[in-house]
Specification:
Largest sheet: none
Keywords: Membrane, Transmembrane, Transmembrane helix
Radius of gyration: 38 Å
Oligomer: single chain
Order of helices and strands: HHHH
Number of helices: 4
Distance between the termini: 91 Å
């Protein structure tokens, strides 16, 4: 009959008794760090606003403010009268319709003339 005997090839297991307490210390330290990070994250999330402003609207307002500042700096508050005299009222009306998206066609087509899109 063959008998197998387990052989301890790991050396003396009683002299290296520091691994267990060090592992426990590392786990406790990581748990404390996790709790502190979660508390800090919750505190920062509570300070955030409910909603953020629209980026495009903010960019538009900044562009308008910049253009107004450029106009005030250049001293050209109003357009010269000869510029206004050269404009026709029909061209202004067509531009207004195009900008607002009002259709000028009687059949209800789209503003850009493409009848395939609704």
């Amino acid at each position: 009959m063959d008998t197998f005997v387990a052989v301890n090839n790991f050396g003396d297991t009683r002299s290296g008794g520091l691994a267990g307490p060090m592992g426990l210390f590392v786990i406790v330290l990581m748990s404390i760090a996790t709790v502190l990070l979660i508390r800090n994250m919750n505190k920062r999330l509570r300070r955030l606003p409910d909603s953020f402003p629209d980026v495009r609207q903010t960019q538009r307002e900044a562009e308008i403010a910049r253009l107004n500042a450029d106009l005030e700096r250049s001293g050209a508050g109003e357009a010269p009268s000869d510029v206004e005299a050269g404009r026709s009222s029909a061209a202004g009306a067509a531009t207004d319709n195009e900008v607002t998206g009002v259709t000028t066609q009687s059949d209800g087509g789209s503003a850009d003339g493409d009848d395939r899109r609704v």
